[in-house]
Amino acid sequence: MKFTSTLQFNCVPDWAEHYISYSNLKKLIYQIEKGLISVPIVPEDIEAVEVSPLLDSKSRTNSIFIPALDKELAKISIFYISKEKELFDEVTSLVHDYAVFENLNDSLSVHSNSLVTGLSYQSSESAFSQGRSSHPIRRSRSASDAATSHVSSDDDENYNYSTVNLLEGRLPYMWGPPSIEERRIHLKKRTVELFVWLSELKSYSSLNKTGFSKILKKYDKVTSSNLKDSYLSNVVNDAYPFKASTIKKLEDHILKVQEIYSYLCTNADMDIAIRELKTHLREFIVWERNTIWRDIISLERKSHAVGVKAPVAVEQLVETPANIQTPFGMVIVPKTFWRSFLLLLVCIAAFLFFLNANFFKKEEQNNCFALLILASLLWSLEVIPLFVTSLLVPLMVVCLRVLRSDDSPHKRLDAHETTKLIFSTMFSPVIMLLLGGFAIAGALSKYHIAKMMATIVLSKAGTKPSFVLLSNMFVATFASMWISNVAAPVLCLSLIQPILRSLPPDSSFGRCLILGIALASNIGGMASPISSPQNIVAIQNMDPSPTWAQWFFIAIPLCIIVDVLIWLLLLWNYQPHSDSLTIHPIRSTRDPWTGTQIFVIVVTIITILLWCTEKQLESFFGDMGVIAVIPLVLFFGTGILTKEDFNNFLWTVIILAMGGIALGSAVHDSGLLHVIAKTFQSMTSDLDVWQVFVVFAFLVLVVATFISHTVGALIILPIVAEIGDKLGGSHRNLLVMVCEYIIF
């Protein structure tokens, strides 16, 4: 989670304006970044504050940014000192009231006396000392109740006072003087409330210190400065809220509150007292986040929507739901439901028609053809989610009994035999290869390895627009080989944000750069077997399956050539060199390589080398799917990837691939694929091999334009592979590879 969100969801809502203005400081950094290559920035909204010792530096950027930091530090210090005095006064009052309570109970302990006589509030070494201000808690009564929810129900039934009265030590005498037990309940509630707010003050100090560290790190990265260490050590750490003595004083007062609670509620057992107080704190924070912040975020979203009105054409496209009266009440049905429902009826009607049309002599082939039509329509029209259609495939394969035995004469398999065969087919080594690819991609992304490697390369690209464009395209292509062609453009777009921010508003280079990254990422999707699901489908339909070395030998030169052609086309169309731009260079990361990152890189390289030499090691590993288990075991076994990372795998894509494999197996084992291939062969018998390639290339291009690439591969590649077999030689793999690349 970004620190902006962390700050937003962990700060005390009532204190929100007193935290570090992290977002405003980020905006100032971006203004400074633009000023480095355009015109100087003079921050008019920065007020004059006490000058930091670091202002002796002649750096123009530091002279802009340091006063903004000093202003935030002064704001935080003033608020902390004021709030600390209020809370420490409350601790003094609580200790006094506890001693009075013990006297009334005729059991005042020596420890209680030491608390009263030993506590003397020290001034917060500030000129801001003042009389006692309003109480720190300005909560509704429900907030107080949430913080003290562990007080027994019997206690609450006996007596209940407002939070302010309890903390100010004023007990209303509506029914006479309170009893000893009632006073104990009130003191318990006050103790819990005070512990909560002292803990919040400690969190306030910690969160703001983290904020200064984060914003200084960002400033150093953007401006190539070294301000962080010196400012933190010389200024931030010397500020009152962040001194070690200040934190120690706060912890001492928290300890006093814990001691009072232990004597009141746990028979002086400090361990139980601390555990109960932390439970109160946790429940209070949960209540606070689930109510106050929910309302604030809702208001913020509404404020962003104020004055934003959709164009008339867009408003006309917004469909209002339809209300249908039923015996059980009014049902609201979106109008998109009827479109999906009608398309579903069309798919079912087509399925029933082909199921009873008897286009083929064998019943299992006819049933399989009807299933192929149904799955193709559902995948193409996306009436239901793609992975749901894949789950439907094995169900229909079993119910329609489309499989037959391999031995001649072919015997139609029963439901039990079909079930075992189809499910054993779905979880193939290719699926394990896909899982291994997800594990490698997850580790490279989680530990920012791909980003660090990309910044190192892009930092060498210089400032010439054409070279910057080509460098970003090659980085996007390489990244999409390992972290998918969906995640790669997201990564690259985050890297080029400094470039986009520094471009003039009318520059065409931004559009050129973004389009180049998108196209290059798409090209990179065919560069390695694990970069896209359709590559997995292609490998499944190739016989013999290509090794990684063979795939790289064909794919990488082709990707480079296509990237260069796209680069030339973009330069010709957008002509970024005519803008006379000076591109803001991307800075290489300064973070050192960690042991975990090195381990991930080593495991990834070893796995890729094993995949490349899989044919030579086939007697030991058996298949590249077994090699894919290595990164899964090493990354998850060592805790580098967690259960949450495993749950974040693209399981819908995996199920989609499994359904496609099941459908391909059904089409093959039913004999339908042989019949279709034989029909196509008779239709193309007069054509040369290259003419057959052109025909199928055009067919694949048309189909893949209107449906998902993965779905297109699932439907077309099994048929293409069978027709390639009929052509003889090695044409099967060649035809599959050609159609696979055209799908992209």
From TrEMBL:
<feature type="transmembrane region" description="Helical">
    <location>
        <begin position="649"/>
        <end position="669"/>
    </location>
</feature>
<protein>
    <submittedName>
        <fullName>SPX-domain-containing protein</fullName>
    </submittedName>
</protein>
<keyword id="KW-0812">Transmembrane</keyword>
<dbReference type="GO" id="GO:0005886">
    <property type="term" value="C:plasma membrane"/>
</dbReference>
<feature type="transmembrane region" description="Helical">
    <location>
        <begin position="593"/>
        <end position="612"/>
    </location>
</feature>
<dbReference type="GO" id="GO:0006817">
    <property type="term" value="P:phosphate ion transport"/>
</dbReference>
<dbReference type="GO" id="GO:0005315">
    <property type="term" value="F:phosphate transmembrane transporter activity"/>
</dbReference>
<feature type="transmembrane region" description="Helical">
    <location>
        <begin position="369"/>
        <end position="400"/>
    </location>
</feature>
<dbReference type="Pfam" id="PF03600">
    <property type="entry name" value="CitMHS"/>
</dbReference>
<keyword id="KW-0472">Membrane</keyword>
<dbReference type="InterPro" id="IPR004331">
    <property type="entry name" value="SPX_dom"/>
</dbReference>
<dbReference type="GO" id="GO:0006797">
    <property type="term" value="P:polyphosphate metabolic process"/>
</dbReference>
<dbReference type="Pfam" id="PF03105">
    <property type="entry name" value="SPX"/>
</dbReference>
<feature type="domain" description="SPX">
    <location>
        <begin position="1"/>
        <end position="233"/>
    </location>
</feature>
<feature type="region of interest" description="Disordered">
    <location>
        <begin position="129"/>
        <end position="156"/>
    </location>
</feature>
<feature type="transmembrane region" description="Helical">
    <location>
        <begin position="508"/>
        <end position="528"/>
    </location>
</feature>
<feature type="transmembrane region" description="Helical">
    <location>
        <begin position="548"/>
        <end position="572"/>
    </location>
</feature>
<feature type="transmembrane region" description="Helical">
    <location>
        <begin position="624"/>
        <end position="642"/>
    </location>
</feature>
<dbReference type="InterPro" id="IPR004680">
    <property type="entry name" value="Cit_transptr-like_dom"/>
</dbReference>
<feature type="transmembrane region" description="Helical">
    <location>
        <begin position="473"/>
        <end position="496"/>
    </location>
</feature>
<keyword id="KW-1133">Transmembrane helix</keyword>
<feature type="transmembrane region" description="Helical">
    <location>
        <begin position="689"/>
        <end position="717"/>
    </location>
</feature>
<feature type="transmembrane region" description="Helical">
    <location>
        <begin position="421"/>
        <end position="444"/>
    </location>
</feature>
<keyword id="KW-0813">Transport</keyword>
<feature type="transmembrane region" description="Helical">
    <location>
        <begin position="337"/>
        <end position="357"/>
    </location>
</feature>
